């Protein structure tokens, strides 16, 4: 007799599906292509998580990697480590991603400042920053679409 499927089982399966949709080789042409997958992966964290979506020269996915975990309302993000991961994966471009545990995906001034800092650091190694997506229960916001890149 099989045990009933729990809510936790469903969430775990949804997260596995989202990760498979962010699998290697898939080309991205616009931010909305990844919103639902990123939301599935990050919206239920009770702490801030910063991640990178690593892309090749044709903007195909190389990988998705969570880099930093923080607290309820912030995470320390180190440009050196972001650059290191981009180099290790030979990424031509990246999409910066983080969640807001509050559920509100509206970017803060700190988010905009971090975007500029990381974009400048990544430019030094020839890696393009395509976007910074903020994820919350209420949806996703693209800083590129808002004109912050």
TrEMBL record:
InterPro entries in the record: MPN (IPR037518), RadC_JAB (IPR025657), UPF0758 (IPR001405), UPF0758_CS (IPR020891)
Domain MPN: from-to ranges: 27-149
Keywords: Hydrolase, Metal-binding, Metalloprotease, Protease, Zinc
Protein origin, superkingdom: Bacteria
Molecular function GO terms recorded: metal ion binding; metallopeptidase activity
GO terms classed as biological process: proteolysis
Alphabetical list of Pfam families matching this protein: RadC (PF04002)
Name by which UniProt lists this protein: DNA repair protein RadC
Source organism per UniProt: Pseudomonas mandelii JR-1
